[in-house]
Pyrrolidone-carboxylate peptidase (Olsenella profusa), 214 residues
Amino acid sequence: MKVLVTGFEPFGGATINPAWEAVSRLPQEIAGAEVARTQIPVVFGKDAAAVEAAIDAERPDLVLCVGQAGGRSHITPEFVGINFANARIPDNEGNQPVGRLEPEGPDAYFATLPVFAMVDAARAAGVPAAVSYTAGTYCCNEVLYELMHMLATRHPGVRGGFVHVPYATEQTASMGEGTASMSVDMMVAGLTAMLEAAVTGGNEPLVAGEGTEQ
């Protein structure tokens, strides 16, 4: 079995993106599955194209995309991606789109990873985690939606989903007191536990585990 994990490059003037920092430090093998990883751009259109190019190159059984959600305190698997973009800031090439991502596509796609079991696994590893029901309307949501669209239409049998991570602790040195953050090491532990649950579990995100709604 092979797992493809993607992480975004830095954006918005930042020098690091904790998503890629954590993804790049994942083990080479998780729960018996080979782990491939790739960095993707924070550019509308090019980000999803980079994910599909990696899928074509790696031929994974499971795809997990990871992005930063500054302000969150937990690692959050996303439940759903929506067919809409409303970029609050320009992407790394100055694009700031508003509108549907796929004019003929469905309004939303659910993740096909066991998001509740993933949260339970991260919490068991001592990592704060919770299911999220909104991936926003920036590049992260676009990648989740377009990933699920390409899996549904061009890569049948491949499971996929998206996880947001908080700011890395070092990013918050110049931010306001109390800004939520997490160490990259803890992110790695949480993502590893989540991937173990995804590899060994099923593809039904609607089945909740114990305590996931706290």
